[in-house]
Amino acid sequence: MQETNPWVTKPLHTAQLIQGQMPQPADSHMGPTRQQPGAVESPSTGLPAFPLTAPQQGPPAPWWWVGCHGGAGASMLTAALAHTNAADAHGRWPAPQRPDLARAVVVARTHYHGLQMAQLAARQWASGGTPEGVEVLGLVLVTDAPGKLPRPLREFAHLVSGGFPRVWEIPWFEEIRCGAPPAPQHPAYRRIEKDLSRVVSGGIPHA
Questions:
Q1: Are 149 and 161 in contact (CB under 8 A)?
Q2: Which CATH number belongs to the domain containing residue 122 in this structure?
Q3: Is 135 domain-assigned?
C-alpha cells in the first residue's frame, strides 16, 4: 500500500502555518526521488510544457531551470551559471522526444505565492503530470527580500522542501537588485553547480 506524500498532498493556508499545523520532513534536502502517481492526486492546474523538437545550437542543456512563477530567478541562475550550458525553460516543463531525458530544476522565490507555486509544481511532478522523460532534480529557493525570513514563510519553505529530491538556497543579493550581474563565484552558486554536475555525471543518484 502506497503512502501519501504529506508535503505535496495537503495545501496549506496562512492560519495553519502560523499555528504550526504541518508535518515536518525528516531531511529537507533529500525528499522523494521518484514520482508517486498512485499516492498524489494531480492538481487541476500546473506548469505547461514545451517540446524539445529541434537540436539546440551547441551542446545540449545538462539541466533546465524551471521558474514556477514570474520573477522566480531562473534567468538569474541561467546568467550566473552560463558556463554550465544549463538553460532557462521560461516557466514550462521541457518535453523531450523519446527516448531522451530532460532534467529539470524548479526555481521559486521564498514569498508565499512563490512557495505555493513550488508546492504545486511538486504535486504536478509527483502525480505524474509532467511530460514523459522529465527528471526533477530539485528545487532552488531564491530569497525574496533582505533580512530573516518570517517564521510562517520559513516553516512553509521547510514543508515545500520535503516534496523535492534536493533543495538549494540563494541568499538575498542587494547588488543584483541594483542592476549588477550575479557573481558565479559565490558559494551558493558554486554549491548548486557542484551538486548538479555530480548528479548529471552519475556521481550521486538521480531523481
A1: no
A2: 3.40.50
A3: yes
How many other CB atoms are there within 10 angstroms of residue 183's CB atom?
A: 12
User: Cis peptide leading into 165, omega within 30 of 0?
Assistant: no
How far lies 105's CA from each of 52, 64, 68, 156, 174, in Å?
16, 6, 10, 19, 24
Q: Is 45 within a domain?
A: no
Number of domains in the chain: 1
Q: φ and ψ at 114, to 5 degrees?
A: -60, -40
Of 44 and 188, more confident: 188
- Euclidean distance between the first and final Cα of the chain, in Å? 22
Provide the 3-class DSSP secondary structure of residue 175.
Answer: helix
Q: What pLDDT was estimated at residue 175?
A: 86
Q: Is residue 108 part of a domain?
A: yes
Rounded to 10 deg, the angle between the 151-161 and 112-126 helix axes is 10
Give me the domain span that covers residue 133: 61-200
- Asked if residue 9 is part of any domain, the answer here is no
Instruction: Answer yes or no: are the C-beta atoms of 140 and 168 closer than 8 Å.
Output: yes
Q: What is the pLDDT of residues 43-56, one digit of tens each?
A: 878 899 988 876 55
- Secondary structure letter of residue 162 according to DSSP: T
User: Nearest to residue 38, comparing CAs of 122, 124, 120, 126?
Assistant: 126
Mean pLDDT of 61-81: 96
| Nearest-angstrom CA–CA distance, 181 and 140 | 18
